[in-house]
Amino acid sequence: MEKYRIVMQMHEAMCFVDVVPDFIIEASDDFSAKRQAAQLIEHWEKNGVMAIGFDIYAKKLMSQVTPSSGIHSFSYKNFTVFDESKYSSCTMILPEHLKEVNQQNFVELLFQRCAARNNKETLAIFECIAFGVERI
Questions:
Q1: Which helix (H) or strand (E) holds 127?
Q2: 67 DSSP 8-state letter
Q3: Which residues lie closer than 8 Å to 68 by C-beta, 6 or more apart?
Q4: What is the pTM of this model?
Q5: Strand, helix or coil at 118?
Q6: Under a CB-based contact definition with an 8 Å cutoff, are residues 133 and 7 in contact?
Q7: What is the DSSP string of 3-66?
Q8: What is the DSSP string of 68-103?
Q9: Does an H or E element contain 130, and which?
Q10: Rounded Cα–Cα distance for residues 116 and 78 (Å)
Q11: What is the mean pLDDT of residues 31-48?
Q12: Tens digit of each residue's pLDDT (9 = 90 or more) over 57-106
């Protein structure tokens, strides 16, 4: 049995971040690990076990998990932003249309986009649009 970590690509306001929960799964191979990860993520989302969001007023990434989830913390990596002005005619978001930014710029841009769109909301929740597994 191999140990794997789940990596979820989360999306909000045309901003993307890879989120890695401190949750380890064991599987015999990559395919089995991906299948197990898909079931876990579906369970987490369906049952409200975890939420990754952005506190608009505090300008910071945040997370919420239920104690029964087995998740204690998250790490964030690969912050990317879709450049709407450069690719406004695109209907599909492809990797070559993502521009890498540092965390401070990412948070500032995310704040601007969320504040403009969610003028009554204080929290913007990210949606998981893709996932992968990493052997550890």
A1: strand 127-135
A2: G
A3: 49
A4: 0.82
A5: coil
A6: yes
A7: EEEEEEEEEETTEEEEEEES-EEEESSHHHHHHHHHHHHHHHHHTT-EEEEEETTTTEEEEEE-
A8: GGS---EEEEEEEEE-TTTSTT-SS--GGGEEE--H
A9: strand 127-135
A10: 24
A11: 91
A12: 899 888 888 888 888 888 988 888 887 666 665 555 555 667 778 888 88
The alpha-carbon radius of gyration of the chain (Å, integer) is 16
Q: Are 10 and 125 in contact (CB under 8 A)?
A: no
CA distance 74 to 58: 18
Q: Say whether 126 sits in a helix, a strand or coil.
A: coil
As given in the structure block, the two tokens for residue 94 are 């492809």
Amino acid in position 98: L
Closest CA to 99 of 85, 79, 113: 79
Cα–Cα distances in angstroms (integers) from residue 107 to residues 25, 80, 97, 131, in the given order: 30, 10, 19, 22
